[in-house]
Amino acid sequence: MGNRHGCCFRTRGSDGANSHLSPPINSEVPPYKLVSPDHPPPSSSFSGPNMASLSLPYPHADDSLRALSGLAEGFGHSAVGGLHGPLYHVTSLAGPISLSSLYIHTFSRHPQPPSSEALEGKWGGEGNLLGYGREKVAVIDEDDGPGSLREGCRKKEPLWIVFEVSGTIALSSYLSVSSYKTIDGRGQKIKLSGKGLRLKECEHVIICNLEFEGGRGPDADAIQIKPNSKHIWIDRCSLSNYDDGLIDITRESTYITVSRCHFSNHNKTMLIGADPTHTGDRSIRVTIHHCFFDGTRQRHPRVRFGKVHLYNNYTRNWGIYAVCASVESQIYSQCNIYEAGQKKVAFKYLTEKAADKSEENTGCIKSEGDLFVHGTQPGFPTTASAVTVFHPSEYYSTWTVEAPTDALKKVLQRFAGWQRVPRPADITK
């Protein structure tokens, strides 16, 4: 298929950062290669003779409803979501009150009612009291109310949120998700548009099998994780066409896994680490695996400060670069497929100065077993870095990784993102 750098089956590299690895003389199955004849991948994951030998993650994720809890590979492996809470059934995609009608009625003495973006930026949303001039009114989001997703995510107790209806939830403001929640879209087709989910100072959240498309307004991200959120797993979601980012992970949010997601029709796909002034982002730890970055322009991801493990992702036809390492970041890129379009260089390095340092610095990318096809150039720096990139086994002992082959590429093209899968039974002891 192309040039492969390094060997996928190696537990540890002894050479420096930003260098490709040579295949070991005696290749052994490493501790992170999960192959178990007792746990084969689901039959739906195979559509051709070359795919039957693939070992894929999460073969039993759909055996029961709560099997997702604690199942994530990588840094988000501790995320339990709403494991210990009851089911919450979303029965309504829209509330009875229109936000726009409230504007017109309440602010009728003004020639032009303020936009929802202006109100949100000045006072916040989600049912808060918003002031304008000398008046104060309660603004109720049109997606709120009994049986709504917003109501379930707002509750403080652990909940496993499931859907009894399919359709689009048009969010008029960010939907804040509180701790110990699972938002489980299996069994229905749920699309979020307008705004996105905000994970603010929360922990143990699982987001599964949703679509995000058409987010509008400044700072409109599909999933925004900041600040100080941890133990998060985003799995099997389709994300496209937001005005800002698709997934942003910043301001000391950490222990996060993004897996089996499909990203398309977008510019700034995924930002990890806010800016050079947020030096606390050195605590960020993120795993991204088995995702399909399908013609998105840049940031797959872009990283500042944090440590990121990329494995078995397929990134194609980017518009600027595939992966960017900026100030003090460490990226371990393992057995990914990079397939260039017009822009041939996969890796980009940007130099910035951390707020608590006197000199500028860039980040590091270590490529192990990556496959660069269709004339893709890795873009390794000409001078070796003195920084040693972390190895994932320092943080977790097992993960499922395959050689980057045509079979893997076909699986990711077909099965990354939202899937038409039934909701599993809720088997409780």
UniProtKB/TrEMBL annotation:
Pfam families membership: Pectate_lyase_4
UniProt keyword annotation of Lyase present: yes
Domain Pectate lyase residue range list: 132-344
UniProt KW Lyase keyword: yes
SUPFAM superfamilies: Pectin lyase-like
Highest taxon listed in the record's lineage: Eukaryota
Keywords: Lyase
An annotated Gene Ontology molecular function: pectate lyase activity
Cited InterPro entries: Pec_lyase, Pectin_lyas_fold, Pectin_lyase_fold/virulence, PEL
Record protein name field: Pectin lyase-like superfamily protein
UniProt lineage: Eukaryota, Viridiplantae, Streptophyta, Embryophyta, Tracheophyta
